[in-house]
Design goal:
Elements (H helix, E strand, L loop, with lengths): L6 E3 L5 E8 L6 E6 L4 E5 L8 H13 L7 E5 L5 E6 L4 H15 L1
Parallel strand pairs: 2-4
Antiparallel strand pairs: 1-2, 2-6, 3-4, 5-6
């Protein structure tokens, strides 16, 4: 199963990515894909308090996927490790290809 299954497209053309966050990690970045939950695994160094982990999630995703930070926002799961992130202005197929490359590199 590919990372494409963690992505969906909204009616207004934005892409929603389902992720699973590991806060307080020693290393930040996309660490894998959970096929059972169809979610991208993402590690961040920040603690899950006062929105620190959410900000780190947005920063890491924007950096790793080469996106403007203004195009990435948390759509749901603000207080959960299971989040949905909204990405605007990028085609879903391009994002899926970038994710697949990142996952191959992390394997």
């Amino acid at each position: 199963m590919s990372a494409r299954s963690s992505l969906s497209v909204t009616l207004d053309g934005a892409v929603v990515m389902d992720i699973e966050v590991q806060p307080l990690a020693s290393v930040q970045g996309i660490t894998g894909f959970n096929p059972w939950r169809s979610r991208i695994s993402l590690a961040v160094k920040a603690a899950a308090k006062q929105g620190q982990a959410n900000q780190a999630v947005l920063h890491v995703l924007a950096a790793q996927l080469d996106l403007p930070s203004t195009s990435v926002s948390v759509a749901s799961g603000h207080r959960s490790r299971l989040k949905s992130v909204r990405i605007e202005g990028e085609p879903v197929d391009e994002l899926a290809a970038r994710l697949d490359r990142l996952l191959e590199d992390s394997a």
